[in-house]
């Protein structure tokens, strides 16, 4: 089980990303628009730099929904490999059986 503080930090980052997504996208559109004057694009770049760092989507890290484990994460199921193995062994993941040969 991961530390509660790390799980809460990721939740906080997720909320910030959602909160600033529209503003960040608008500023990036201005920055990438070559038809605008250089001064306007530079001002947009400075405003983008003033936004909180944790509002950037690249700072998010996927974590297991049950344990908070950051490594060996399956995106489709939002679980770590360990929890996926446990749940499938107990028959709680539909269509998945532990193979043995």
Automatic annotation (TrEMBL):
Q: Which Pfam families match?
A: Ribosomal_S14 (PF00253)
Q: Which InterPro entries match?
A: Ribosomal_uS14, Ribosomal_uS14_bac/plastid, Ribosomal_uS14_CS
Q: Which domain of life is it from?
A: Bacteria
Q: From its record, what is one biological process in GO terms? A: translation
Ribonucleoprotein as UniProt keyword: yes
Q: How does it assemble?
A: Part of the 30S ribosomal subunit. Contacts proteins S3 and S10.
What family is reported?
Belongs to the universal ribosomal protein uS14 family.
Protein name from the UniProt record: Small ribosomal subunit protein uS14
Task: Read off the lineage from the record.
Answer: Bacteria, Pseudomonadati, Pseudomonadota, Alphaproteobacteria, Rhodobacterales
């Amino acid at each position: 089980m991961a530390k509660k503080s790390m799980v809460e930090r990721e939740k906080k980052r997720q909320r910030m990303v959602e909160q600033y997504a529209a503003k960040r996208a608008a500023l990036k559109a201005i920055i990438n628009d070559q038809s605008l004057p250089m001064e306007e694009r530079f001002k947009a770049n400075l405003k983008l730099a003033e936004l909180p760092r944790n509002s950037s989507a690249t700072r998010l890290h996927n974590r297991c929904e049950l344990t908070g484990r950051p490594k060996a994460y399956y995106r489709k199921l939002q679980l770590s490999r360990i929890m996926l193995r446990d749940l499938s062994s107990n028959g709680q993941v539909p269509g998945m059986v532990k193979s043995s040969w």
